[in-house]
Amino acid sequence: MPPTVPVTPLDxxxxxxxxxxxxGAAVLELQDVRVWFPLSRDWRGRAVRxxxxxxxxxxxxxxxxxxxxxxxxxxxxSTLAAVLMNxxxxxxxxxxxxxxxxxxxxxxxxxxxxxxxxLDPRLPAWRVIIEPLVAAGxxxxxxxxxxxxxxxxxxxxxxxxxxLDRYVHEFSGGQRQRIAIARALAPSPDVIVLDEPTSAxxxxxxxxxxxxxxxxxxxxxxxYVLISHNVSVVRHLCDRVAVMYLGQVVEQGPAAWVxxxxxxxxxxxxxxxxxxxxxxxxxxxxxxxxxxxxNVVLPQGCFFRSRCPWATAGCERPQALLARPDAPLxxxxxxVMARASH
Length: 342
Fold this sequence. Notes:
342 residues; alpha/beta; Rossmann fold; eight-stranded mixed beta sheet; three-stranded antiparallel beta sheet; 11 helices; globular; ABC_transp_ATP-bind; ATP binding; membrane; ATP-binding
């Protein structure tokens, strides 16, 4: 039997009231983006089997906000980050980087998950920081000016400029991530994609990096797209959040609403999986989970149907994102929960 979902009052979300006007105008838009990677080819070289990494993702990122994307491993988060960076081109659909006031397209930089492998070990730290400027032709500014820029960025992220002649391996993990953040800030980007920026760090260092990101966003008016499987990090940093499952967005809306009153069964299971001190360990063993669907042959209808405890015959049909009646900014891809909310 489907659950009865009470339509409870939600906490107000600053900057997301009423009609849906957010922190600012849209800076990135994805329209029905699909990405398929070929797995095997026929004798003519044509792909005959694909891994479907993204399956119809439609998102809008607004200027000045922190937009979180959460989901389990393999749901397509990192592929989505690569699409936003133009490192992977959509098989279908469209990515739009909306222009700046001067007519140039919005600039997007990225902070990778592992700072050790994403920073050039052959260069001193100050050269690593100004790499994006050099790549864009900034060598004409002169070495002295570039070094001044690197020193200023180091101070902003909490590093001492006199240490920038060291190489990357001479820094701690937290310091390396600060170097990566400084490098992303160097070209004054419109959007910074944060791909699991704290998962390779100790807990205490994670808190320092998250607080640094919040301070930088406030100081520079930055726009973040945070890719993470850590719900607590998203709760701490993000204004809006999209929940992904098997390459689809199954729920999206203001983070305070999605994480306080989730509507999609997958979002509920994702939040229930987070350990909590106030929740006792279950006495009975957990039920054997259903086999995860693959992304080579996609499931018919709702992708989560085989794992959902509330699935009905109607779930065999494709599910569209449905807006919550009392909260139009909160949408989810589940007709069962939509009926139960009324």
